[in-house]
Amino acid sequence: MKYADYKKFDSLNGIGMRHSLFCSGCTHHCKGCFNAIAWNFNYGKEFTRELENQIISDLNDSTRTIQGLSLLGGEPFDNVESLLPFLIRVKKECLNSDIWCWSGYTFDELLINNKEMLSLIDVLVDGKFILEERNLKLRFRGSNNQRIIDVQQSLAQNTVVLWQKGNY
Asked: What confidence category does residue 166 fall into, taking pLDDT thresholds of 50, 70 and 90?
């Protein structure tokens, strides 16, 4: 897998101070995408074990208060082969970190095709960006159709549970 960017100390993509990994490669090609350069699976740098180790070290830095990891794209779920083992490591080695993920796929689609990776995520912003439904007043999402989902509660209750700020 290639990645477009790794941003430390990101306060825009999820609650709290976070580190954000922008994956390369996306099959959705949403009109008006803010990161269309990352559609190309060959864009950016190679996602290496060294970068994995760096991200885990950054998440565990006791001199900073880091809430967690954010996965954006491109499309993270178009990179399951590389991200799944990494997210398993994050869950095992970064006990105080949550994982937020943005995906053009819906929760229901991911539940059918990528439940294992989905089960490692705490908050999912799902659905393709739809330019005609763009809403600049929304927090953490770009268009009205997108939902912010509490993944763990949704899996436990077997129905979509929308994320509530008070949950974190």
From this structure: low
Q: Are 7 and 20 spatial neighbours (Cβ–Cβ below 8 Å)?
A: yes
Say whether pTM exceeds 0.90: yes
Tokens 């490669």 identify what position?
A: 25
Residues belonging to the chain: 168
Check: CB of residue 114 under 8 Å from CB of residue 107. Answer: no
Three-state DSSP at 26 gives coil
Give which of 114, 130, 117, 115 is closest to 28, Cα–Cα. 130
Per-residue pLDDT tens over the stretch 16-25: 999 999 999 9
Residue 120 and residue 98: Cα distance in Å, rounded? Answer: 9
Cross-strand pairs, 103: 126
* 3-state SS, one letter per residue, for 144-156: CCCEEEEHHHHHH
Is 145 exposed, middle or buried (CB count within 10 Å of its CB: 0-12, 13-18, 19+)?
middle
HSE at residue 157, side-chain half, CA atoms within 13 A, is: 10
- Asked if residue 128 lies in contact with residue 142, where contact means CB atoms within 8 angstroms, the answer is no
Per-residue confidence (pLDDT) for residue 158, from 0 to 100: 95
The pLDDT value given to residue 16: 94
